Amino acid sequence: MTSRGAGTAFSRRNYRLSNESEKPKVTGIVNSKLLNDYLHRIFPSADGIQPAAAYRKPLTFQNLQEHLDKLLAEDSGAEDSRDQILEGRLGPSTVVLDHISGFEGLLLVDDDLLGVIGHSNFGSIRATTCVYKGKWIYEVLISSQGLMQIGWCTLNCRFNQEEGVGDTPDSYAYDGNRVRKWNVTTTNYGKSWAAGDIVSCLIDLDEGTIAFCLNGVSLGTAFDNITRGAGMAYFPAISLSFKESVAFNFGSRPLRYPVEGYRPLQDPPSMDLVEAHKLLGYLKNVIHIGIDVLEGKLVEKDTSMWQLQGEPTVLITLAHIFNHFAPLMCKVYLVEDVLMNFLLSILEQGGAVEAHPLIQQLLDLMWLLMEDYEVHECLKQLLMSLLRAYRFSPIIPDLGLQIHYLRLTIAVLKHEKSRKYLLNNVLFDLLRSVVFFYIKSPLRVEEAGLQELIPTTWWPNRFTKEGKESKEVKEESAEERLRRRAYDRGCQRLKKRIEVVEELQVQILKLLLNNKDRGGGEASRYIFLNKFRKFLQENASNRGNLTVLCPPEYMVCFLHRLISTLRCYWDGHKAKAPAALNSEEAYVPPQLFYNGKVDYFDLQRLGGLLSHLKKTLKDDLALKANILIDPAELQAVTMDDLDEDEESATSTAQRPVAALAIGGALARPSWLSSPTLGRANRFLSTAAVSLMNPRRSLGTLEKMKARTLSVEQRTEDDIEGSHGNEGLLLGRPPEEPEQSITENSLLEILDGIVMMYNLSVHQQLGKMVGVSDDVNEYALALKDTEEKISRCPKRRRDIYEELVKSQKVFSEKLNHLSRRLAWINVTIYSKEKMQDIYWLLRVCIRTIEHGDRTGSLFAFMPEFYLSVAMNSYSALKNYFSPVHSMEELPGYEETLTRLAAILAKHFADSRIVGTDIRDSLMQALASYVCYPHSLRAVERIPEEQRISMMRNLLAPYEQRPWAQTNWILVRLWRGCGFGYRYTRLPHLLKTKPEDANLPSLQKPCPSTLLQRHMADLLCSDCDMAPSFLNSVLNQLNWAFSEFIGMIQELLNQVLNRVTAERNLFDRVVNLRLPGLESVDHYPILVAVTGILVRLLMDTDFQGAKRATAVLLADPCFQLCSIQYLLGHAEPSALAATPPSADKRHFSLHTYTDYISQEELAKVERMLGHLSEESKQAAASMLVSPCLVCTQPRNQQSCGEGRGRVPFLWWSGGTRHASSDGDLGGFSLGSRGAGFAQAAWLGHTLHSPASCVPSALLNATCTHFSMPGSWNHWELATQGGGVAALLHSGHVGVRAGWENSPGQRLVWPNLGCEVRLGVPR
């Protein structure tokens, strides 16, 4: 930020109390001698030698100003002459980024022209000053760790969206994201950087070298022999990709890591520095030296307990000092180098912040002796310097730097007047003050000292999760146990140090939430409330613009500190008001959602838009909440919404016209923060059209803030209420108890916390789980490598050495990740953080329950309450394990049951109209029924709610996602089916055993209770069953007849084709082709077997009898398919063809882990049952008359010769038919146990077409098979007396039967001949 007021003349306060001629020479407080001694002690000469009293010029307040001016001017001449030396540098003395002509692409630049955010593919920008001789340095504060190239370039370098600094000749760059250096070509260099690091860029134009440092540690010389000479001058420059951000320090602030011999591009204000240090020394003298009026002498005083105590002599002395000191404290360099270091030195003495009241006294002096604008600027710069120092300080083992800066921040904020000014004008308006509550995670654990804190690393062995429900217990060796315990001790040491920082952060928030400091205006808490609400609005309204949002990692830490502070104040109020609720029972009352006291911006409500709800539910508001909606307000809201839509459309239509000239500045919304922790209000573009336009014009934006402005202007009475005014609790519905909850202001903060979680916290919690996943992956890789080393032959030394190298790499990576994971577990996934999220879940559940009781007014609740309830439960279940288990939380079972009741009731709630939130509820319920513990919670909700839930699930799919509904219903049954209790596909485990270590499918957990509810509903409601079936079939685009046909095909054709050996399916399975691992007999045959067992075994006698009769009557059914299920292999069709050595016959007996003995026994009984019924059906055919000749059936035809009728006879058959043609004596007869024999009885077969009924010949191994009508089989003459069996389908016919006269039937589709006749 540029300093203001330093070079402008202002009228100053006059503190000279006794300079009029009529006043006596003695002050009236101390005598002249004592005053003279005091002033000479406070303002000593420059050489520090005090002359004897007789030779000293007497000092009084009349000549003190002259004396002080003389002291301050003693070194100014030398400083002035030294400041004129600028050899080796060209350009303005104040170095900033060149926002006029020195950039390429789209960039957002801070208003101090030192911070920049990339807003295009690869934007570039350089500084305004270049160097051509000497040694120079500048620093870059890394705000994001993405793709950037930082370094130097010449004026001749031309950049574009693809090439930046380091990609052209005479430009040199360091890239810590890819850990490389760039100068047209690229090579490895340096270390990886992280957000919060500081890169120092050094150039030595005398030696021709360029080097870089990271956090003060040299990375070595990057480039040498750089181009020098006439016309060669180098500018600081950077290229950065979209969303990446940095801040430059060319010397406007003290360098964090100065390097000896190198000068910053911008000279420090040396003369001001000398003067400021002198004045600070005089101030320290005032603090150290006191006046004992009674004794008439000067005394040394304890500086830590110094107080002004209203002494006029001391006050006037300080006024003279501050008369010079105050203007200097408006400059950022002096504030950071002089004032902040002085205040930090006070706290270095140790002890609590309260033990150092000197800082409070100094702040009192500043407010007393400085102009208001000077105090404001000084405090602003001080907080900015503290925030910058905290954010960009390296992490050391004891976190001492972070603790140091936080302690000073607390000391400043303890001063009431300063705190209120900073809250009103700085903390949320100019700074990203949320940074104070962030603890950054170290990317390089060795620099953070984690190797000393956690010397022993450990990582858990990969455990098997059945849907994250259970862990596979493994034996732990003694060595592993020792390592784990040592690792845990290191984690505890780290946790204790981080807890110190967290406690300091909570102390800051406690100061900001203080509601007792009403002196001099509004209490701090109510200022914070309005600023906090605005902060939420900025992040909620700009979720698509990532450069504007508060980073989610900051939000996570801010949320936890705010929860701790809120609960502290909440329970403190409970101690004072026993009738109020404690924090464990906290919730947000429903009236906050509709009484208009809290602004929810444009966030969606459960019932739709707020304007719509006010119009449709105005009668309910009047009746239940005693809130009247003014018709004029309704009209205004409606027109306002219309204007907003029109303006948005107009803005969109006019967007191509909104062109900016090169270097033009776009008026930015006031909420945009920059990477330098200040405001960014310049938008630079080299494109013809700007890619960033505000949603509305600036004037329109101000007009739309009218409602927000009213919230910002709220008073304490508007929030807390008084004299019959309920404040935020206006409009209490009759269903809401009259019991006091807590202070109203705390309710609004609680509401904001829930909104914060919804905005970005949940997303960040899921993101950080990736480190744990990386640990598991590397642990598996290391284990696999160690196993390969143990199996490696000794003669293959080359392979062994490569494996050892891999082992070393994996071990080093695991050591690094395990220490980093320890940090993340402490700061994000600790038990205390888990309890915070659990508390937030319970708050949302209670809030939803209270809102639900209000009936139609429930529609006013913002959607994010339901979202946070679902997401926080998901986070507890998925993100915090295995470090901490949700089952350990108090009231865990009750909480799950209450959440289950909410999901079961509201997924079909007509009061909820939003499609997205309804889908989320369905998905949450679908996830809920996947896990045993949560499914049991669904079963524990009241029976009435369970039945209502099942009724809604069975209702026709109207305006709700049918996929999730089907998923829920299927999950309620999954695991009850035959052989379907597996968590991993068993055939895949056999073909790919390495998949055993991959995440499993969710373990089935059926619910017989909910199954019974569904059965009762479908059986008792005559309209629901057909409606449900119609809905299902409509979604599948089937008719009922098609559905039955599909079932028949599944039971017969699919069963026959999958069980037939040497067919296409069997060959594909045995080939084991890549990508077809999932093609296997198991999933198909198990499903068919389960249906058959259910129809034939697990039903009543009559049902089984009917099913058996239908099954055997179906011409496609064959008994050998059932035998195939149990592993009864079919003998080879040709004796000459030996069985394959690697042929594997399918059998349910091989899947004992997935199919129970009871299920196998049922299949055995089913096979026996079908075999017996088949024989009985065959026997009944022997006594049944022929339908043609009316004679009893035998193995001879109805006649011989021309015109005779053949007949079809097979084991278990029930039909035969005739044809008018001359068939000779052809008959099909029975041969043995279920074999069909084709016997040739005549000489000719010349009928053009003979219709034979479809047949299912129950052969032991092969068969004729074809479903359908009676005309599918034809016997025809194929010339020369050759008979052919013609059919369009797939039929398997047993070969090996010869006809007596030598004629044969040819089956062309099988590629082999089929002989019909008598056996040899």
TrEMBL record:
GO terms for biological process: proteolysis involved in protein catabolic process. Keywords: Metal-binding, Transferase, Ubl conjugation pathway, Zinc, Zinc-finger. Residues 75-255 form the B30.2/SPRY domain. GO terms for cellular component: cytoplasm. The keyword Metal-binding applies. One of its GO terms (molecular function) is ubiquitin protein ligase activity. Its EC number is 2.3.2.27. InterPro entries: B30.2/SPRY (IPR001870), B30.2/SPRY_sf (IPR043136), ConA-like_dom_sf (IPR013320), RNF123/RKP/RSPRY1 (IPR045129), SPRY_dom (IPR003877), SPRY_RNF123 (IPR035773), TPR_RNF123/RKP (IPR057987). SMART domains: SPRY. Residues 713-723 have a biased composition (Basic and acidic residues). It is an enzyme of class 2 (transferase). Residues 711-738 are annotated as: Disordered. It catalyses: S-ubiquitinyl-[E2 ubiquitin-conjugating enzyme]-L-cysteine + [acceptor protein]-L-lysine = [E2 ubiquitin-conjugating enzyme]-L-cysteine + N(6)-ubiquitinyl-[acceptor protein]-L-lysine. This is RING-type E3 ubiquitin transferase. It comes from Chrysemys picta bellii.
